[in-house]
TrEMBL record:
Keyword Heme among record annotations: no
Domain of life: Bacteria
Protein's organism: Noviluteimonas gilva
SUPFAM superfamilies noted in UniProt: Thioredoxin-like
Protein name: Redoxin family protein
Length: 154
């Protein structure tokens, strides 16, 4: 019960609400490098940090996929960051048909979730970024069907 996440390493910037998220480089499933948040600037971004072994993460994926499809080319962009093995994530995406971008990072005290404001490392973890990369909202725990649109709008 007293367990806690390891301390955030010195020099790692943890995002705070109302501030710009730190720049980070992650890999896409095709192994290309993606600069976050720059790659997705110009539109709000819902980033969902998850893992294929996380039951609540897997349960919320259909709701995230439905929301992403509803948004089209001009709405909120949905991006997943899997703290997981790239092969496990590829298999998961193929099996479930997730179409929004999925990036990969290794879980640890300085992973993307930590840098996005979740130093305890609880999954799933979601953030909403403004079109210019400011951290607007944070959420620990899964979304239920139909609640994402209201959360992203309010």
């Amino acid at each position: 019960m007293q367990a806690s996440a390891p301390p955030v390493p010195k020099g790692v910037v943890v995002a705070k609400r109302g501030e710009r998220v730190p720049n980070m480089q992650l890999r896409a499933l095709d192994r290309t490098r993606v600069e976050l948040p720059a790659q997705y600037s110009g539109r709000p971004v819902l980033i969902n940090v998850w893992a294929s072994w996380c039951g609540p993460c897997v349960k919320e994926m259909p709701a995230l996929e439905a929301f992403a499809r509803e948004q089209g080319a001009n709405g909120v962009q949905v991006v997943g960051i899997a703290l997981d093995d790239v092969d496990a994530v590829r298999a998961f995406v193929e099996r479930t048909g997730v179409t929004y971008p999925i990036l990969i990072d290794a879980a640890g005290p300085a992973d993307a979730g930590v840098r996005l404001g979740n130093p305890k490392g609880v999954l799933p973890y979601s953030v909403l970024l403004s079109a210019d990369g400011l951290l607007l909202k944070q959420r620990i725990g899964p979304f239920e069907e139909g609640e994402i649109a209201g959360w992203a709008r309010d």
